[in-house]
Amino acid sequence: xxxxxxxxxxIIFYLVGIPLFIGLLFGGGLEILPGPAKGIDVPDTVDxxxxxxxxxxxxxxxxxxxxVTASEMPADFDEEALKAQSVAARTYVMAKIIKYEDKKPxxxxxxxxxxxxxxxxxxxEKQLIESHSEGWEKSFEKLKKAxxxxxxxxxxxxxxxxxxxLFFSSSGGQTENSEDVFSxxxxxxxxxxxxxxxxxxxxxxxxxxxxxxIKKALKKTYSDREPGTxxxxxxxxxxxxxxxxxxxxxxxxxxxxxxxxxxxxxxSSTLFNxxxxxxxxxxxxxxxxxxxxxxxxxxxxxxxxxYKYKEILMHYYTGTQVY
Length: 323
Description:
Radius of gyration: 25 Å
Number of strands: 14
Number of helices: 9
Number of domains: 3
Mean pLDDT: 89
Low-confidence stretches: 7-35
Strand content: 15-25%
Largest sheet: 3 strands, mixed
Shape: globular
Structural class: alpha+beta
Helix content: 25-40%
Order of helices and strands: HEEHHEHHEEEEHEEEHEEEHHE
């Protein structure tokens, strides 16, 4: 019996022990990836379309993520918020690379991503330094450290890469369902509370317009509709979304989406109220951006409250996991 056990141990050693030893010796260790990550072939570099220069540049993948994070979020934000942004940015570019294999973007068919808000804002390190005050390099080191801490990590939902990891500046207290702003509904892009946005930009922002200015802006932007006669009696908010933003407005004899009014009048968000003052229409808005996905100021607020970056991401992207 003892001889039989000894023989079995020897066989196990040859079948498992020796290959494991060789792998550790020559492979530098074993890297066991989580289930979802096994199907993702992350490239070493990414092609980026530079809009102003009209050319494609090849950028190291992780350098790209770091520079996008630096371009999209203030470097003085909490490190956990910067980590959350880096994961969102990494997931975003990976999703664009995957989509690029099937369909090339019309505005930049030579590269999966561009450097503008059409995709994610990307600036070179030189551009970042030039656009900030002297001594910003120290802040950049902090930012690079945060991105390095999440290297390779991305967002997954139900075992698949998140294909729409959207983010924006500030929500005004509540994010939006994706279908209330864009055409598609995604289970991880649903309205959630964003309570820690004290100090966020564009809070109670007021803009005043005359009735003539509103009519001119709407006709210029949406020539398919004729608002007819507009007065303070026929300007009203008809409905709101789950996140509290304006879904529909009646202006004169025409109906407009809240996003259309925002675009035509240059409002910071669709989370607004209207009032009237001396024949002027006053729009008071809160938040900045489309309101879907990660609120950057909300992420910073959560980080200051002690939340870690994975907790922040899982709050704003419902049901997701970070690997």
